[in-house]
């Protein structure tokens, strides 16, 4: 009949089809929400549903939902959603448990000021005595003072200078310790942050500090014993735990070879007696709640009793360990507004020190004329990005590493630092580096970097303090899984490698022997001898 509307879906407009689809979707959603509320123990009274007829008109008739025979199991809900008052006893126990966990975490990170014996520090390794560790000669006698090479045999052969060529051949001739593969020499449980050699020339004795305060000890004079069957033991390593946070640096004074000093982000400096195998706190803030992470320590060549250190808040301190009271003998200077990553004393004249800081400056200081209220440096040089470390050698040269991918060498010995009068200042021109070496210092997140956030240590230059030739040299880790060795003039002497599968970011020289060791983020070491 003309004028009569056809109810078939084919005659509905697109708008009408969309409207009906929206209504159906809404009803399905309401039904789903209702079922979920009922199953969780909640019940919302439902208003009468308006059915939609085929012609789009709304009917007031509501179809009752059929009750199920089984009662739904209520889901777990909080007291707040159920409208109930929380049980005070249950809540109290939960709060106490949470506080206990938080307190345990705080205690793990808080420094321990106790006197430690070997048994209270040891984590793993064999029981050793001081004489077994450093040797009777050290105790009873004075110590004698990826994979792409950028330097190799071809560079050594092409060297024209006779002395330089001889030194290059000597340093490039170092080989990895052959008794064990580096992947099997795990000296610490966590990533290595600092390392040092014992100054003894009798044997390579290595100490390494890691991210969680462990101290690993490796005696590289040990022999590989014959084994039976399939047994093939790893090298003997002793692991101790004198600190609770990263061991940032360590030092052994050559005139006091049985004492190892370790500094940590737990704000303490400890002295380990290698003969008695005990550890004693030598410096820390008066309150255990004071947080002053220590970034570096050093000792004057002519004074085995005085400790110098820097912190991550930019301060510098000095303390005589023989003093009865810390309060009267600790001297402090605020040398930087940002963290000092590394520093060192001039071995020949320990009143001079060089600092490297996050504010991009390498600064030279003279303790003879250094004001506590307004310390003024002898001179300073600004790099494009932050400077990680500043290392002095006995010739008066300072080597720095920086995140602008350069190694810089400042030759203050040639500029007469030994004859400078107290209070002298150096011009910006004289503070410019004498040599700049391109070197990849972008450690990223895979390598150790001395940072309070426990991220990763930066690549740091470290001089051989008593070389057996007139040519000074330093070593530094290479991101291509080598250790680079450079002279004081910036000439590369060697690129030490081998079966090394990780970046030896922490690299150090022995004081007088041509021994180099590198530590990795996996707590393993590579030793070249």
CATH topology of the largest domain: Methylamine Dehydrogenase, Chain H
Largest sheet: 5 strands, antiparallel
Number of helices: 9
**How many structural units, i.e. domains?**
2
Strand content: 25-35%
Q: How is the largest sheet built, in terms of strand order?
A: 3-12-11-10-9
Q: Report the span from N to C terminus.
A: 107 Å
User: What is the C-alpha radius of gyration, as a whole number of Å?
Assistant: 34 Å
CATH superfamily of the largest domain: YVTN repeat-like/Quinoprotein amine dehydrogenase
- Tally of strands: 31
Global mean pLDDT = 84
Compact description:
It holds the Pfam family WD40. With 529 residues, the chain is an alpha+beta fold.
Give an overview in words.
The chain is α+β, with helices and mostly antiparallel strands and 529 residues long. It has two domains: 12-56, no CATH class; 115-225 and 232-528, Methylamine Dehydrogenase, Chain H (7 Propeller). 16% of the residues lie in helices and 28% in strands. It contains nine helices and 31 strands. The chain has helices spanning 14-39, 79-82, 88-109, 118-121, 130-134, 136-140, 153-157, 162-172, 326-329; strands at residues 51-52, 58-59, 116-117, 122-124, 192-197, 205-210, 215-219, 237-240, 247-251, 259-264, 269-273, 278-283, 294-298, 306-311, 315-320, 331-334, 340-345, 352-357, 361-366, 379-382, 387-392, 397-402, 406-411, 435-438, 462-463, 473-478, 482-487, 492-496, 506-509, 516-519, 525-528. A five-stranded antiparallel beta sheet has the order 3-12-11-10-9. A five-stranded antiparallel beta sheet has the order 4-8-7-6-5. Strands 13-14-15-16 form a four-stranded antiparallel beta sheet. A hairpin with a 5-residue loop joins strand 1 (51-52) and strand 2 (58-59). The longest helix has 26 residues, at 14-39. The chain starts with 13 loop residues before the first helix and ends with a strand. Residues 1-9, 46-71, 136-145 and 445-455 have low confidence and may be disordered.
């Amino acid at each position: 009949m003309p004028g009569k509307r056809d109810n078939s879906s084919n005659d509905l407009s697109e708008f009408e089809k969309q409207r009906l689809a929206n209504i159906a979707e809404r009803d399905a959603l309401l039904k789903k929400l209702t079922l979920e509320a009922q199953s969780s123990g909640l019940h919302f009274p439902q208003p009468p549903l308006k059915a939609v007829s085929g012609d789009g008109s709304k009917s007031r008739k509501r179809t009752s939902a059929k009750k199920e025979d089984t009662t739904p199991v209520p889901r777990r809900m909080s007291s707040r959603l159920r409208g109930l008052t929380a049980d005070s006893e249950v809540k109290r126990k939960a709060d106490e448990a949470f506080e206990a966990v938080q307190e345990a975490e705080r205690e793990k990170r808080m420094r321990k000021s106790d006197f430690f014996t070997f048994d209270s520090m040891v984590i793993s390794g064999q029981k050793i005595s001081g004489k077994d560790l450093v040797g009777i000669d050290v105790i009873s006698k004075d110590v004698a003072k990826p994979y792409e090479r950028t330097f190799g045999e071809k560079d050594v052969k092409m060297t024209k200078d006779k002395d330089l060529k001889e030194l290059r051949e000597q340093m490039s001739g170092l080989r990895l310790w052959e008794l064990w593969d580096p992947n099997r020499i795990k000296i610490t449980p966590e990533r290595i942050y600092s390392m040092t050699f014992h100054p003894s020339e009798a044997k390579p004795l290595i100490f390494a500090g890691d991210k969680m305060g462990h101290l690993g000890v490796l005696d590289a004079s040990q022999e590989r014993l014959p084994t039976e069957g399939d047994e093939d033991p790893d090298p003997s390593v002793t692991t101790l735990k004198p600190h609770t946070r990263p061991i940032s640096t360590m030092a052994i004074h050559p005139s006091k070879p049985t004492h190892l000093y370790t500094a940590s982000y737990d704000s303490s400096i400890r002295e380990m007696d290698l003969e008695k195998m005990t550890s004693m706190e030598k410096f820390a803030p008066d309150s255990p709640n004071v947080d002053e992470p220590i970034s570096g320590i050093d000792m004057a060549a002519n004074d085995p009793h005085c400790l110098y250190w820097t912190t991550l808040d930019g301060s510098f301190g000095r303390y005589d360990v023989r003093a009865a009271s810390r309060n009267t003998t600790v001297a402090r200077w605020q040398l930087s507004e940002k963290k000092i990553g590394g520093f060192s004393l001039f071995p020949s004249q320990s009143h001079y020190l060089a600092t490297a800081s996050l504010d991009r400056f390498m600064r030279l200081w003279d303790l003879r004329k250094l004001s506590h209220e307004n310390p003024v440096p002898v001179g300073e040089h600004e790099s494009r990005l932050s400077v990680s470390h500043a290392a002095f050698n006995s010739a008066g040269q300072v080597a720095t590493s920086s995140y602008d991918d350069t190694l810089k060498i400042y030759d203050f010995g040639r500029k007469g630092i030994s004859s400078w009068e107290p209070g002298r200042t150096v011009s910006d021109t004289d503070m410019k580096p004498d040599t700049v070496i391109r070197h990849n210092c972008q450690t990223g997140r895979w390598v150790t970097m001395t940072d309070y956030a426990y991220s990763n240590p930066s690549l740091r230059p470290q001089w051989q303090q008593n070389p057996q030739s007139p040519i000074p040299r330093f070593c530094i880790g290479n991101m291509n899984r080598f250790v680079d060795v450079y002279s004081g003039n910036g000439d590369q002497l060697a690129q030490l490698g081998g079966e090394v599968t990780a970046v030896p970011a922490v690299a150090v020289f022995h004081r007088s022997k041509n021994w180099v060791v590198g530590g990795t983020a996996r707590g393993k070491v590579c030793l070249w001898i």
